[in-house]
Amino acid sequence: MRQSTYFAPTMRDMPADADVKSHQLMLRAGYMRQVAAGVYAYLPLAKRVIHKIEAIVREELDRTGAQEMTMPALHPAELWQQSGRWTEMGDELIRLKDRHGRDFVLSPTHEEVVTMLIRDGIASYKKLPLNVYQIQTKFRDERRPRFGLLRGREFVMKDGYSFHDTEESLAEAYQEMYDAYGRIFTRLGLTFRPVIADSGAMGGKDTHEFMALAEVGEDTIAYSDASDYAANLEMATSLAPTPVTPTVSGTLEKKPTPNARTVDEAATQLGLASEDILKALVVVADDALVMLLLRGNDELNEVKAAHELGVKHLRMATEREVRDTFGAEPGSLGPIGNGEVPVYADHATRAMTTIACGANETGYHYINVSPDKDYTVQAYKDFRLVQAGDQSPDGQGTLQFARGIEIGQVFKLGTRYSETLQAQFLDENGKAKPFYMGCYGIGVTRVLAAVIEQHNDDNGIVWPKAVAPFAVHLLCLNVKNEAQKQLAEEVYAQLQAANIEVLYDDRAERAGVKFKDADLIGMPVRIAIGKRADEQIVEVKERHTGAQHDISVEQLIDWVKDYLK
Amino acid sequence: MRQSTYFAPTMRDMPADADVKSHQLMLRAGYMRQVAAGVYAYLPLAKRVIHKIEAIVREELDRTGAQEMTMPALHPAELWQQSGRWTEMGDELIRLKDRHGRDFVLSPTHEEVVTMLIRDGIASYKKLPLNVYQIQTKFRDERRPRFGLLRGREFVMKDGYSFHDTEESLAEAYQEMYDAYGRIFTRLGLTFRPVIADSGAMGGKDTHEFMALAEVGEDTIAYSDASDYAANLEMATSLAPTPVTPTVSGTLEKKPTPNARTVDEAATQLGLASEDILKALVVVADDALVMLLLRGNDELNEVKAAHELGVKHLRMATEREVRDTFGAEPGSLGPIGNGEVPVYADHATRAMTTIACGANETGYHYINVSPDKDYTVQAYKDFRLVQAGDQSPDGQGTLQFARGIEIGQVFKLGTRYSETLQAQFLDENGKAKPFYMGCYGIGVTRVLAAVIEQHNDDNGIVWPKAVAPFAVHLLCLNVKNEAQKQLAEEVYAQLQAANIEVLYDDRAERAGVKFKDADLIGMPVRIAIGKRADEQIVEVKERHTGAQHDISVEQLIDWVKDYLK
Q1: C-alpha angle B456/B459/B464, rounded to 5°?
Q2: Measuring CA to CA, which residue among B155, B142, B137, B145 is closest to residue B93?
Q3: Interface contact A508-B4, CB threshold 8 A
Q4: I need a labelling partner for B160 at 20 to 30 A (CA). Which of A482, B31, B285, B493 fits?
Q5: Shared-domain flag, residues B173 and B204
Q6: Confidence at residue B204, expressed as pLDDT on a 0 to 100 scale
Q7: Tens of pLDDT, residues B409-437
Q8: How many domains does chain A have?
Q9: What is the DSSP letter of A2?
């Protein structure tokens, strides 16, 4: 492809409104342009990368026997009302009316439609398991679209859905997809971690998110430095410490802690460390008040707490709810004399060697507290937010934190959609049963951005070979020099004949501009035809390492083929 | 692919609401399902065909140097307001508001967005010509979605746009796209005609539509039986007849024609043939009244009349407008004594040997009319609707009528969009000029339906090899027979190893069901493993001709390869 008439408008200046690297680079290097907030046009260079990402995704999914189809973007509202998501999804769901006033959804995902299709198309367990997928444009009205392709309102997703007669069959497909995703992201040149994630609002069970590690990631993950354990912060656990019996140096005693509204303030007034104070938090778990105890220097993980308590909704109680129930301010609560409110304690509280706690009387704490004797709990659970340095729950290594971009997710939906949409099959005994379902997503355009986040330097993008728009960037440094021009055309023809994808900079620009643009655009191999053209020598630069080689034209194609292998 | 777990739910009964063959067959054979009126899911079989259509489209466009990109479906309303189409497109344009209340368009086409991108990305004539395209889902809120994929509300289009510094450059690209389209539709196995079409509301100049010939087509085309002349009925012309001097057997005379409201009624009362009467029609051409004269047995072609008169809008005058101006009913109008209203006559009126016409007095006609003497016209023009049997305008053959499905269109937009959206480049002299633009569309999903309309028989679809979902349909007639089962598995493995796409019917169904389904689904080659399995003999049937062959397994792969060439 000749760059002189290629539509890749580069920008000299840093785009003002782009605050992450991938967004900046894709704008500067002419890969994309914004059409509206969170809505982009993918220019020819980006389109080539997207094709390659899609091809890898298709290849690995087809290997598993998954079948590609395409479902529409317009869905009748009735389906979403039936599943309950018409209301659940709120403002993120783009709605519209057709000319007859009928309500439609511009779809962000396809559980409803695929469940309807399978319900109407598959009657018997004999056709199961079934795994279908599509690569398709999705719409989501983000409140604050940002970071370019990382959080847009129109984006490309691979979404897949599997249907099963048993939970075991679902578990097999889940594992198969998990493995396929690993292969896909590896081939795409990404550094990633599959992490345990929260099934939350989707209403399913097991789920893993695939996280590309990157500073700009919006999610924090905790991972072991010595095993493959990794989880989203909201789901991360650590090894529970060995319980100890606290040293109680005196009798239970109430001490004034005037105006102590935090654990730290109380600790200071009591002459103790924060970790010696029981942090008592009151939450509303599915409408019931519950007191949760944490070690003073720990934080509550609400997601884990909801899971551990087995409730759907969990929120912090308001100050008013606290005062009405305990007759004390939130800073003075504790498990002793707290009325009928059930108490749960985090495992880490069992490792406390000294214990003080609020007295349920504003401005007072108890010291010399003995668990079991002075207070009892319903159960010890895991609801603390893990901290860097905690022991990994598998006992191997300690936890570290990293930021990640969610590029994929595998999810056991169970019967959430087949039940609400009455999708049933007949089992071996002719009995109607709801399908077990899994769903599997990859953010195709988000992957594009994530690859750039992981593969760039100060000069521009550094494409991995597998997804580079072109393998080779051929520069004719001075198009007015006859020898250079002729050799460049010759090399261009040779590369094309060898089926090597090449972008040919045949523009009437200065050499410096061409070198700068080549680095910015980021092809793996740069071939510059310059002063040594009359000797049939070209200069080859590896974008990845920066290594440069003078190579004779005769050996060039072999060198390139070899390098690209 | 094993059919036992392939998602292609066939239907035994004719679907009730499908009234064209392609729609019926795609539903019955499990290629697609409706999700809402005019909105479909493409199941795995159809998806395979779509991939093949797209690959052919890409290959031929890439050959011309056109560059693929992807523009978004969501467009800010401002762009469409600027181009004027926000109002022009009326109810067909799907509109929506985002969470902040901003207006968006769900796009049916991309002239606005691409013009904006090129405006902002291309500054100089040096980067021209430029030809970009995308293959993308489009949305159009059809008043009456029907005929399955032929008139849907969500469909896949290839749309392309070219940008030029001169009209000549545009003409070159237009011809290049015209030729590429011919290659594409030929490779897709379609019988088609490029026809001269009306540029109408798109506001451009030259345009050709590519019509797949089919009875269900919504458009009528007129074509020569002896040349490649073809045009939409609304644009078709014929050779103007040689002018004659009418025989006038007496003097101009006014005759009563009471209650004659049509040419035929007047002719009967006057004892003349309809073709002897001047049909005088009054139209409103850009707000001015104009009288048009046709031979009595001809019909007005309003599109041609507007073009010939050089006006943008043309409509029939109302009866009231006629009465107010002429003081007579529409059935009694003529060019004699018609006041100040300008008169244009169709060429065919010059071939009339006897002429009568309305007297502009209700219930009266003139006979013995001499043109030039009794009335004059501003000019003779071509605005009659052609009739089958007319001479082709190129003088070769006569016109025939056929029905067609519009599968593609090439269009010279000129500067319609670059002017309204202020898209300019600098020419060689540094002068700012609006881009000349062309646009080029192919209805990908409509092509899918058109291929089926042209390739089916009473038993089902008969795919052309180039776009068949699978090349081979392999049937194991009795999966309980060990020899058959074993041979079928062997042949399946051999076909896969030879890279031949194969759908393998391994279902526990009767042979009759399998044969019926194979015909319905329509793969080019059917291989049945049956009674002669123990002799290593299989039965091969060519779907296209119905020819059957007993072939030894040893020779099978070579036979298939050879047949598919």
Answers
A1: 35
A2: B142
A3: no
A4: B31
A5: yes
A6: 54
A7: 999 999 999 999 999 999 999 999 999 99
A8: 3
A9: B
B245 in a structural domain: no
The CATH number of whichever domain residue B217 belongs to comes to 3.30.930.10
Mean pLDDT of A344-349: 96
Looking at the fold, whether B368 and B325 belong to one and the same domain comes out as yes
Q: How many CB atoms lie within 10 A of CB A256?
A: 12
| Partner residues linked to B468 by β-bridges | none
Among B508, B34, B407, CA closest to A75: B34
Residues of chain A in contact with residue B107, where contact means CB-CB under 8 angstroms, are none
**What's the ipTM?**
0.92
Q: Is the CA virtual torsion B503, B507, B512, B517 positive or negative? A: negative
Contact A192, A205 (CB under 8 A): no
Residue B384 has pLDDT above 90, yes or no: yes
Question: φ and ψ at B505, to 5 degrees?
Answer: -80, 95
DSSP-assigned states of every residue in B386-421: P-TTPBPTTSSSBEEEEEEEEEEEEEEEETHHHHHT
Inter-chain contact B7–A129, Cβ cutoff 8 Å?
A: no
Q: Is the pLDDT of residue B404 over 90?
A: yes
User: Alpha-carbon distance B358 to B337, whole Å?
Assistant: 10
pLDDT of res. A204: 54
Evaluate whether residue A396 is within a structural domain: no
> Range of B302's domain?
253-381
Q: Which residues of A touch B91 (CB under 8 A)?
A: 99
Q: Do B43 and A69 touch (CB under 8 A)?
A: yes
Distance from CA of A36 to the nearest CA of B (A): 6
Q: Please indicate, yes or no, whether residues B134 and B218 belong to a single structural domain of this protein.
A: yes
Q: Are A170 and A436 in contact (CB under 8 A)?
A: yes
- Residue B216 to residues A150, A250, B145, B148, B406: CA-CA distances in angstroms? 46, 96, 15, 12, 11
In chain A, residues 280-309 whose CB comes closer than 8 Å to chain B: none
DSSP state of A243: P
The rounded distance, in Å, linking the Cα atoms of A369 and B204 is 87
Residue with tokens 């050499």: A511
Would the CA dihedral through A283, A285, A286, A288 be positive or negative? negative
CA distance A156 to A444: 5
For residue B365, what is the domain's CATH number?
A: 3.90.960.10
Q: Which domain CATH number covers A496?
A: 3.40.50.800
- At residue A202, the pLDDT reads 46
Mean pLDDT over the full length of chain B: 95
- pLDDT tens by residue, A151-190: 999 999 999 999 999 999 999 999 999 999 999 999 999 9
How would DSSP label each residue in A247-268? Answer: ---S--EEEE-TT--SHHHHHH
pLDDT of residue B202: 46
Average pLDDT, chain A: 95
Best residue in B47, B69, B75, B94 to probe A by mutation, most A CBs within 10 Å? Answer: B69
Residue B399 · residue B224 · CB < 8 Å: yes
Question: Residue A557 contacts by C-beta under 8 Å, 6 or more apart in sequence?
Answer: A494, A495, A498, A500
Residue A129: its chain B contacts at CB < 8 A?
5
Contacts of B193 (CB under 8 A, 6+ apart): B210, B211, B213, B221, B223, B230, B402, B404
- Of residues A36, A46, A48, nearest to B74 (C-beta): A36
Q: Indicate whether B318 and B448 sit together in one domain.
A: no
Residue of A nearest to B90 (CA): A99
pLDDT score recorded for residue A199:
76
What whole-number distance in Å separates Cα of residue B380 and Cα of residue B337?
Answer: 19
A172, A292: one domain: no
Task: Indicate if B135 and B28 belong to the same structural domain.
Answer: yes
State the Cα–Cα distance between residues B232 and B243, nearest whole angstrom. Answer: 26
The tokens for B344 are: 């244009």
